[in-house]
Amino acid sequence: MELSEFLSNISRLHTGLRTTENLIKKTLQYEQDSKKDLFKDFGQRLAILEKLQESVLDLEQMVQFIPALHDVLQEGKKKLVREAEEKKERFGPDLEEELKQRGFLLRGQYPELKCSFFVIETDFNANRATIWYGPKQERLTTCVLSAPTVAQHIQTVRERLGSQLEAQDFLKKLRIAYNRVVAASSDRSPQPARIIDVLAELAYLMQGPRFRQDPRKENFTTYGRADFSYDLFRLREEGSARRCLHLSVASRAHTQRRQDFLWIPDDESGNGTTYSHLEFREELAT
Questions:
Q1: CA pair distance 215, 259, nearest whole angstrom
Q2: Distance (Å, rounded) from C-alpha 126 to C-alpha 129?
Q3: Model-level pTM?
């Protein structure tokens, strides 16, 4: 039997239970009254007990469908688990093909798959994929656990990552942000600046004319940790800043809190290093 076929049985059982409940309540009330007069309403009491007996017999007939319902539920559970396993088996190859069509390679194994700078955290029970930048450094987005959907999200976040500025234009803004952080310190001489402090200044420099004219939320251009990390990676890959820009690898003490470090890729495969400070060294540019 199909699960839907049990609905009418359950509905009749529900009605029968409600009827039985009402008859029991009446019986209890009469029993309370009979303590004063045994023969008061004797005929009505007897009739209700007979109805109650008939109702219980009906219930015994009604519940005979329960073993069959139990079997259907057991089979449904097995089917669901089987379908979930089949989906897990298909998802990996399907996602690999979808990403390949978009120029990406898939690596890793469940529950964390890897693609370029990204980690795809799979949750088959919730039918959800969470996409992270780096080794679960920055949470970017979530989506339905569908191979085409996940692949499209990967492509979209990759295309939107970073400032989209040319390397030299980004380097100019980065230098301004760094100088502002140094100028705000007690010792204004060139020195390593906390990389997250530079990000805060740089995020403001990334704002367009609309925000500067009217600094409201809807005019703000988001520029976050993942954007900064990717821009620094591009800058180092491009090579023009290698002689003047120095990044300090984060010590263990500097990796305890997110405000003290930033993960930056070393390559397109998702290997990377955490850094705590940034410095422009003019003497290296000669």
A1: 24
A2: 9
A3: 0.75
Of the candidate ranges 27-31, 96-100, 177-181, 257-261, the one whose mean pLDDT is the lowest: 27-31
Q: In this structure, what are the phi and psi dihedrals at residue 249, rounded to the nearest 5 degrees?
A: -65, 135
Cα–Cα distances in angstroms (integers) from residue 110 to residues 90, 113, 119, 120, 145, in the given order: 12, 6, 11, 9, 13
Do the Cβ atoms of 51 and 94 come closer than 8 Å? no
In contact, 280 and 178? CB cutoff 8 Å: yes
- In this prediction, what percent of the chain has a pLDDT beyond 70? 92
Rounded to the nearest 10 degrees, how much is the dihedral formed by the CA atoms of 234, 239, 245, 249?
60
What is the identity of the amino acid at 250?
A
Please state the three-class secondary structure of 53-82 as a single string.
HHHHHHHHHHHHHHHHHHHHHHHHHHHHHH
Kindly report the number of other CB atoms within 10 A of residue 117's CB atom. 29
Using the predicted structure, report yes or no on whether residue 256 has a pLDDT greater than 60.
yes
Least Cα distance to 268 among 148, 111, 105 occurs for 105
| Residues 141 and 210 sit within 8 Å (Cβ to Cβ) | no
